[in-house]
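Submission sheet (multi-component)
Chains listed below:
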Amino acid sequence: MPQQQQKETQQNIRVVSGIRPTGDLHLGNYFGAIQNFLYLQEKHTCFFFIADWHALTTHPRPAELGYATQRTLQLYLACGLDPQKATIYIQSHVPEIAELYLYLNMIAYLGELERCPTFKEKVRLQPDNVNAGLLTYPVLMAADILIHRAQYVPVGKDQLPHLELARDYARRFNHLYETDLFPEPQPYTFQGEPIKVPGLDGSPKMSKTGSSEKGVIFLTDPPEVIRQKVKRAVTDSGPQYPGQPMSEPVQNLFTLLELVSSPETVNYFREQYQSCKIRYAELKHQLAEDIIRLLTPIQERLKELEANPKQLQAIAYEGATRARTSARETLQRVREAIQIGLKGETPPPVPEPLTL
Ligand code: TRP
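Outcome: structure written.
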């Protein structure tokens, strides 16, 4: 295929991914998810959204949900998600998703939803709140994906069972309504091993849940806080003989260094370690400064966005408009396939958008 044509084909590939509104993002989120989105927005037609409806399954307090939605959007933009390159929106701004969710619920079966590992986990975690939304979480997620007829979905391993269901629903819908409307969405996998971001407290994964927040670097941490946290990172008493294998906490520091520092810096400290000359204080100082170098421009953009709530609203509005255009096209074809409503009808006029 000629190069230009190949490029166009790549650009036509539709990618969807949802982000749970968690509020304060950390380095684990940055290297685990955000960097992938930055790469994908350069290559494909991307739809990235904040999954605020999904968040309701755990009954967040309204003020928390409101804060987390805004914060997550600000942070993704500050990290370089670009509304010129990708369609960035808030799920609840696109009511077409809820309608598709309704249709998909008719072809989703109770048994398969109950068997879903994430559902079983939630039942264990919140036995007093096993609501129907929790059960049909994967159906809503399938609606998010199918509403744009996406071919690829970049997600972590924990989401693969949900994606499997989305593929089942696409196939079932096509079969039941004798159409080829929905492609079967594939997980988007990156070459090589998925990036693992360890914590500073010796834990294998930087994460807000579980271990304490001391091992976590938030994208919003000011330089002094970063220096403090890195200084207090767990190490050991140093290698006793050349070539001694690294303990896990030290290995973790090197993993972080590899993510934020230059190859020369990493090599320098590796050699120091090998020859038993390493000074962990020096390594930590370098690590902290390189993290600060990565986060400074992000924090500067974040400040601009914070100072400019109208701009954030305009971005969200524009994103929702584009997402709805794509969503309405799919929904029109869904309605035709099902023959719901009256034939040849024009959809009722759209009233003024809801305001918050
Ligand atoms: N369930 C996903 C998560 O917890 C978030 C999500 C919602 C999503 N809808 C999606 C991811 C659609 C990909 C595609 O991370």
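Remark: Strands lie at 14-19, 45-50, 86-90, 152-153, 186-187.
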